Amino acid sequence: MKLRLFIVLNLLLVSISLSRAADHPNILWLVCEDATSTWIGCYGNSETKTPNIDAFARQGFRYTHAFASAPVCAPSRSGWITGINALSLGTLPMRSRYSIPHNLIKYYPDYLRQAGYYTSNHTKTDYNIGGRPDEECWDDKVADGWRKRKPGQPFFQVINFNESHESRAFGDCLNTRHSPGEVTLFKYHPDEMGIRMNYAKYYDAVENMDTQVGKALEALDKAGLAEDTIVIFNSDHGGVMPGSKRFLFDAGIHAPLIVRIPEKFKHLWPAASPGSTVDRLVSFVDMPKTWLSLAGAEIPAVMQGHIFLGPNTEPEPPYAFSFRERMDERFDNERSVRDKHYAYIKNYMPYIIWGQHLDYLWKLLAMRTWEDAYKNHRTDAVTGRFFTTKPVEELYDMDADPDNVVNLADKPECRKTLETMRAKLREWQLSIHDSAMLPEAERLRRAEENKLTVYEMVRDPKLYDLPSYLDAADLALAKDPANKPRLLQCLQSPDSGLRYWGTVGLLMLGQADAKVQAAVKPLLDDPCGEVAAMSAWILIQSGDTAEATKALADRLQKHPLSTLFILNVLDWSHTDLGPYVSALDSLPSVGSNDDMFNDEKIMNAYLRESNGLPVPPGLKEVSEKQKEQNAVKDK
For this UniProt entry, which segments traverse the membrane (predicted)? Predict the structure, then answer.
């Protein structure tokens, strides 16, 4: 009797398990690195052969308006793992690993595991978050984690493909399968053989990635799991030719997204039949929430985004939002708003150029060729724009100008669209608690002083007055001499955020008069390093360099949080580095596990090399390694 009862109970458990597996689909998420949708055949590229992805698109649903939250991997993946935009989370600088309140914010695999899923990620994490090991939220890191699950247990498997990563376009660009002479260039690139060769090399890389995607799909099919598994394919952002990855142009954030849903889950189809295109706007921050919904898992209230697939589909948002901030050793601060027809970009640091020298980017032959073409007058207004300062606002007609080379922001006929998207951006910034209206070192300092994470600090209006910062930024960016009295008032504020935007506005007005110089000199000793650095730049710009030079050199000797920003100001201001040699020598010149210190080291080496100064041995290793990697035949 007991044996019969034991058998019945086991059969019942198996039945329940199989029923659960039938109700809850397996999910396989295939993620390629860096590839914009336009590199792939089914998205209209006739110069590449991606037969596996193209066939997959015919079996699934191809989304035409999917956008990354950030145009680079770590901040983008930070939003993926939490379901919270990195700009809202405080994890926005590339490779920073700032902590978040892990007691409040779990990762989406945590909820999948609670719902009974076996989870595996192969193998890239790069979540840009401190305080928790990236791998902790996963059951395993193999590519076929489904083999280790319990009988009947649904699985969620991620496979990352690095064959299309930017690094695959580094090095020798000779002997490519694609002919450099036959590739079509983006309109913003000059027609140079070095650029064409790099395109050809990256086309080869995209095709290699397609082969790996095909192998993953074949493995799923051979395991007999294809009819029980929803398969998703997309990239982690756009890229990789210069001017795409790291930037908010279409080529930097417009990602492929294809979803294949088996017949047994037909009720989840977003269109009438496989092979259809779906024009719904999808932001990357929508994905974790959607995956949890498909799995029947708990969706925490803290998650942002909109469910875009399945019975719990939420209304389509009219806009997708993205951001750009510090990229490795280089600072910037931008936001973008996308709908299905227009792209709007707001530049909060318009006084610096797009094409700042970035160590990793300059490993591309195409980037070095582009820079050489600009310096030797082989570019025009379109192909040379990358090396000029930016407008405050950009607006592009995506139907007429997919390469984003014709800025419509000043066109009267586009004023209504511009004003609408500008207003929607502000609404969004307020709703998500945009954390980058304070410069990086200052927001860290303020959070640490209050024993909070940046995420917590920016949600306290007493510590982070976002509406006032947005107003001050607009005042500064207006570049209107009539605003000078109000900008000078900002310098007197007890809030470092307002002081910072005051210095930005006064810098943008140009050569400072005696009144402005007198107002900024006391700020050379400001507790906020970025305020002090911007004040020094104002004085340097005006020819009053002595006090500014001493203040920056003294601050560098103390190696504050703002060191990297100060090094960038030395570059932006084109100042004589002679008086700074001793201060530069005092900075760390050996390796570190801290990404910020390594970025400082890279920037220190670049400043020295570009100004003809000797490079110490520790920094020289950085320089020599880069030169070795750049030693390619440019014929």
Answer: none
| Element holding 422 (H helix, E strand) | helix 415-432
For residue range 378-399, what is the model confidence (pLDDT) as tens digits? 999 999 999 999 999 999 999 9
State the average pLDDT for the chain: 95
Per-position DSSP letters for 579-627, written without gaps between them: GGHHHHHTS--S--S-HHHHHHHHHHHHHHHHTT----HHHHHHHHHHH
Q: Would residue 624 count as lying in a domain?
A: no
CATH number (domain holding residue 184) = 3.40.720.10
Q: What is the rounded average pLDDT of the residues 423-444?
A: 99
Tell me the CA end-to-end span of the chain in Å, nearest whole number.
84
Q: How far is CA 246 from the centre of its chain?
A: 6
Nearest to 572 by CA among 330, 369, 361, 379: 330
Please report which residue ranges of 267-414 form alpha helices under DSSP H. 287-295, 365-375
* Within-domain flag for 573: yes
Point out which residues pair with 32 in neighbouring strands. 161, 235
Look at the chain and report how many structural domains it folds into: 2
pTM to 2 decimals? 0.95
pLDDT of residue 22: 58
**Domain at 440, CATH number:** 1.25.10
Q: What percent of the chain has pLDDT over 90?
A: 91
- Contact call for residues 264 and 226 (beta carbons, < 8 A): no
**Single residue among 257, 281, 316 that ends a domain in this structure:** 316
Whether the pLDDT of residue 4 is over 80: the answer is no
Cα three-residue angle 195-198-201, rounded to 5 degrees: 155
Determine contact, residues 540/506, Cβ cutoff 8 Å.
Answer: no
The whole-angstrom separation of Cα 353 and Cα 571 is 11
Q: Which domain holds residue 82?
A: 25-316
104 lies in a domain? yes
Give the residue from 316, 343, 360 where a domain finishes. Answer: 316
Pairing of strands 155-161, 118-122: parallel
Q: Which amino acid is at 380?
A: D
pLDDT at site 631: 47
What gap in Å lies between CA 409 and CA 318, rounded to an integer?
A: 20
Q: Does residue 418 lie in a domain region? A: no
